[in-house]
Amino acid sequence: MITQPHIPDPDGFYAAWVAAHEGLDEASSAELNARLVLLLANQCGDQAALLDCIRAAAVAGAPPNPTPSGTP
Description:
Oligomer: single chain
């Protein structure tokens, strides 16, 4: 799994991604993101890398574990 920046023009990519969402409601925006994820996953085509990415994204978005009472 590549975790270092790998897109030649990340700012341009981000701008195009944001522009694609202009005028969409929340549900349509989420659907666009889902379609984009599936298209990009198909471009990658590496099942092991895709599963690694799913795990990494899930961990990155998980709420922090609360510290048990009395533990610094």
